Each structure stands twice: as structure tokens, then as C-alpha cells.
């Protein structure tokens, strides 16, 4: 017996997610970000079979588990990993905490890392400014990663310490800050500046642990929250002008402009302590940059993520050290670029010497005092930034001196070399880690967060604009301006001065017009003056087609009538047969010499009478339009009545007890 069945590429339980994960483990290891669609295509291409999306998703998860081990085995290695870090990087701070339950079970809680190479590099070559922030872990191991990031002499990010905690709250931040401050030796925070977002737990932890530190807020986060309540580009521009003001007078001026527009917006910003988000250091971009760099690592298990972060900083120290050694400069390149911008604009400023290395730098009526001995300027930009402003650059250039000599030592290449002087020693594989007598911790209990789990952080409007992401602009609050009358409050589609024959360009006029009541066609019908040529001679006349072309077309709006549609419309239409038409006298066309043949034809038709009655033509046109509209309305009415009758029959068959009134 011959089989006519088609070949089936589904093998049931033979092809399981474990079988797929085992065969594609190397592919998934090489490309951890491989999508489910690509994995499904690889399975189909290699084995000529069809795998479901769920099988591929579970296969990828199974492959990761086989590579990294199960979560229980994975977290059991955390003590050994910490001891390996201490053994390979002497002087580093590695702290781990666990939660012990009443039944004796031990669960992982926190893990803190501060490598000695990073700690010493920050203390020797970085300014005393640290940005702290937290981000979510996106992999199998849930939790949050806290990080402390500094800036090197070239204004690049410089990781100092990081920690994994279960929740970002006051207790976790206080624990992190206690270890961080002890490592960098800042005591209660004298001379230290911390930049962060507006997290309540972090703000309270900073006040309790380092009360003497200068805690600044990230202006971008304040702007994002400010834009949620007070929308509009004008508020955004004024906010950033106020945040970037280096003198109190300019700050107050821009804040007063906001107050004139909306007093509540002014009060909202003043409640946020403007001293903490204005002037030079007002963005926590270093923390956001570090979070984006380690985004791929945050999707992996705990130890693998910590290893990848350490590999990243280890490689970074080596690369940036070689880069610094290749520079033949006194100051770092990023600062030199900023000075080059001042070089182009300093020629517009007039330098007036005052003696004792003091100058007044002016342009028009605006002037600022500059003191080269104290490296200060009246605009305060030099004191805040650490390198000469445009006024200081102009004063230095007037003495034929090099402006780079007046740059702060924190931006010199020697300080940059101090940041990357140390290196990090690599670790052994997990099989060679030392054994520890501590109780092996279990994975932390899963926390069910509200809402659907998300992998991407919700970006605010400022970040989307900076990244170039497409976004829709709301028309809320926008004042329309009519293009016909140029008045505000409406557009051309609703303009009272818009002619009726002009088509509308807006989508609102595409709706079906509302049904109106009966109208008196006799009152609505207006016959315009028709220009006719009359002449007693037989040769001075127009053809009948020319006269019809001059007759205006009359459109009759016939209302929709339900009952006895044709009869009522015919009764309503009353056209007077004796329509009087005023025919004005029109100058004839100047006489033109006529061909002899045409003249003979005209004389041959001399006996034909050409009587053109405009009244009959208009009446015929009206009757024709009425018949067309009646025909269309009748067809639509019959179709609708048929549909209603079908619905009623269906309801009767279904046994409906009530008849719903239907409107036509």
C-alpha cells in the first residue's frame, strides 16, 4: 500500500529543549544575545526540523544554566570567589553578607567590591567628586547594582566601587556608603562631593553617614520631573539656562522669567534647593555611562557579572595607561579642546590692564574683572571649572603667555598617569578557587515586582532627544492660527470667512455631514444673470451648445426623507414656470471679416428660428439633479430597510422576547 502523506518535520518528544540546548551550547556561548528567531532558524537549517518558540526559549535558558551551573551551585561559589579576589588583589575590599533564617537556611544578601588599584588611582589622580547610582539586574539573578564612579583628568569615567544588593533602599545605601567612605578615607565627608539622583533612601543615607559632604543633585533628573508637571520647551530652556548660570544674578534672572510664566513652576524648583543642582557639576552622567557599559553583564548570573565588570576595568586600566603614555601634552586632550573654543572667541573681548596682573575684559557694556595671580574671574566660570574661561583666556593672551599654564593640576597628563598607574591581576578559573568553611548560601528569594517585567529602562524626554529616538509631539496647549483670516483660536476648516467651494484640508471635515430638515428649494434657488447675445441679423448669434455652456449649474440639496420619499420631494419642489431672467446688454464682439463659404451657410439657414429659452434649460437642469438625488436616496433607503428586516428575522428565530427600536 502506497502512502500519500506529506513529510512532517515535527518529532514530538524526541526534539526537546534540552536536546536543542545541548547541540547549540557553543553557538549560544559565542553569541549570548542571540535572538529566539535566529536560534529557531539555526535549528531548522542544521537538522531540517521545526522547533517552537517555547522550545528555543527554554533551550537558550538551559544552555546558560549548563554553562554557568544551576543557581544553587552558582551562589554556593560566592564565598570562594570573594577569597580569590582577596588573594589575587591584596589590599582590595571584598565584603559579603548573608541572611540567616530561623530554620537555619542561609540566603545571599549583599556583595561589595572595591579593588585596590582603583582605590589608589582615584585617591592619587582624581578630583574629590563621586557619582553614585543604582541599576537593576536583568538576568536570572534579580537585584540591583550600586556603583560609585569618579572622573579622571580627561573627564572620563573612573569606576571606584560597586555592590550587589537585593533592594535599593536606605539600609542598602547606608551599608554601601559605610564601606566606600572607609576605603577612600574621607571620614565624615570633608572635601568630598557626591552627585546622585533624588532617591529618598540615598539622600537620607548621605545625611546620616557623611553629613559634612556636599551632596549635589543631578539636574537632568530634576528637569525630567519638572517637565512632567510643567510641559513646554520654554520651561526646559529656562531651566537649563538657570542651571548653567555661574553668577547669582543670571540665575535669579532666569528663575524670574519662569516665575512670570508660571509661579507654581518657580516654587517647584525653589523647593529642590537650587544650590545643589546649579553651576558647574550638575549632571550625574558618569553613573549613567557606567550602567550602559555593563548592560550586557547585568543580564548574566551574579559571579559571571562580577567577573565581567572586573575584566572591563582591568582592560580599561591597561588601555588608558598606554594611551596616556602616547600623549606629548601638558594637559589632557578634552581640556585642550575646550581651550581651543575660547581661542576662537577671545578676540572679540577687549582687555584693559589694571596692574598687578589684574585686568578688566569687556565687550560693549559687559565687563568682568580677571585676576591672574589668584586665577579668578568675575563670571566665576574659571573657579568652578578649573581652567580659564574666555575672559581669562583673553587676559592671558594679552601677555603672550600660554593659557595651559593656568589650567588646574587636576587636568594635567601627570594626574592622568597617576589614575592608571596601577593594574589588576587576573583571577583563576572557578575550579582553582580556594575552599571556604562558611555555609554555602542559597539564591535570594524572588521578589514579585508590580507590573510586567521589563528589560529596558523607561527613558525620559531629554534622553530620547539626545539619543535621536523618534517621538510624537503632543498638540496639547498649542494655539491654532487660521491661514485665511490670520486669527487665533481656530484653523481654516472652521473659519467663518472660508468660502464654501474651498475644499477642507483637515481630517475633521471628512465626517459624514449631519442630516438636516426640509428646505424650501424655491427660496434657496437663485438664478444668476445669464449673458446672451441677441441680434436681429441672422449672422449674429451663438449656437445652442454655447448658450448651454453659459448657463450656471444649480446644485439642489435634497434632504433625506424616510416615508414616501419620492412623493414628498416632488411635492416640495415647486419651480415657477414663468421665471423672469434679466438679460443685460452686452457689447458684441468686434466685427471680423467672414469667409465667403461661411457667409453662404449662414444665409442658407436664414429661415431657421433659434429660440433659446433659458427658463426651460434651468428647469430641466433642476429636474435632472432632483431625479439623481432621489434615485440615490431611494437606493440607500431600500438597502437599509432590507438590512433591518434581516436583523429582525434573525432575532425572531433566536427567540428574542424584546424588540429593540431601531432608528433609520
Automatic annotation (TrEMBL):
- Region of interest: Disordered: 443-472, 493-519
Q: Which Pfam families match?
A: MULE, SWIM
Classification via InterPro entries: MULE_transposase_dom, Znf_PMZ, Znf_SWIM
> What are the UniProt keywords, alphabetically?
Metal-binding, Zinc, Zinc-finger
Metal-binding among the record's keywords?
A: yes
For bias kind Basic residues, which ranges apply? 443-459
Q: Where is the SWIM-type domain?
A: 368-400
Gene Ontology molecular functions: zinc ion binding
Domain of life from the UniProt record:
Eukaryota
Query: What protein is this chain from?
Result: SWIM-type domain-containing protein
Record-linked PROSITE patterns: ZF_SWIM (PS50966)
Q: Which organism is it from?
A: Lactuca sativa (Garden lettuce)
